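Appendix B. Worked example

We walk through a single record from start to finish. Start with the input: the chain for 3-hydroxyisobutyryl-CoA hydrolase, Gadus morhua, length 374.
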Amino acid sequence: MIFTFDLHVCIYSSLSFPSDLNAVQMSSASAPEVLLEKVGRAGVITLNRPKAMNALNLTMTRLLYPQLKEWETDEQTDIVIIKGAGGRAFCAGGDIIAVTEAGKSGDPLAQDFFREEYVLNNTIGMYKKPYIALIDGITMGGGVGLSVHGRFRVATEKTVFAMPETAIGLFPDVGGGYFLPRLQGKLGMFLALTGFRLKGRDVQRVGVASHFVESQKISALELDLVGLRSPSNEDVSKLLESYQTQVTMFLGVHCIHLVHLVCSVEGILQNLNTDNSAFAKKQAETLARMSPTSLKITFRQLEQGAAMSLQDVLVMEYRLCQACMRGKDFYEGVRSVLIDKDHSPRWSPATLAEVSDHSVDQCFSPLGETDLRL
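Next comes the structure step. The output line below is what the pipeline stores for this chain.
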């Protein structure tokens, strides 16, 4: 198998989680966490936890799912637009701290959160009406699940995309096993394993976003979108294209042109370690910090997901997330990155060599009566 990252994209920053993704307590208790509005013939969703960077929690999922189902069959609703409040983030991820606490205590939230989030992801992926995600800001983890499966994803120069889950003992879920292996070459595998950040026009260039519009034009675009009457997907596409800015310059300063053979995570690391480029060295150092178990799970997840439907991928990913809830690395990763912030996780097992094929097989095993059903 050839690992080809044959794209010129730019390096922006090292892997990290947004600093206030775990600031759940900072959100106003009185403000609705999701604003659901009808504007003309458009359903407009605003994720409204700006102090927590619009991190997705179970309450929000339970508001979003029934409303999307209602608008899908409502003859007075033609399109759905989803955006984030606050100007910094579309949605920086899921409410990881709450899930961690639930997993430790045996609270059913550790099952319910993922189950209902994945059902929502599937609903977006199968949506019958134009679904437009305005990803004007940080878009990671759960925010990717709310956007990438929709037909239209509009990035701006403020967009920051990443799937950094291997740093916390998890894996790129919310359908990551479906969309990542479908990116050009083996770019998706690279993004999944390293948590590498893409920014601005690069998010559209690689196919994560469908369109790129300057942030200052988003408000005008939204007004024109809600003004459309009974639009087809083609009508929406034409409008988005009329706003799309052609960018000929890269937004960053370093470019990548990397081609490597890939047969395993160990093979990737070996190739990176024998490459003399500064970029390869940096990525090898990044992978060395990730959960070995997460890396092996993620590699197989994307290998299998490349030939699976979105629904089958989400079923697989529910099995994987529950395996992570039963394990140790997820709790250790969250402690290290989001709670104590010492960035010195003690993974178990500590090395790739210690992660057996049998232990990875078990993570993919069916859950019987508790399997996700879509």
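Two observations about the output. The first strand starts at residue 2 and ends at 5. The two ends are 32 Å apart (CA to CA).
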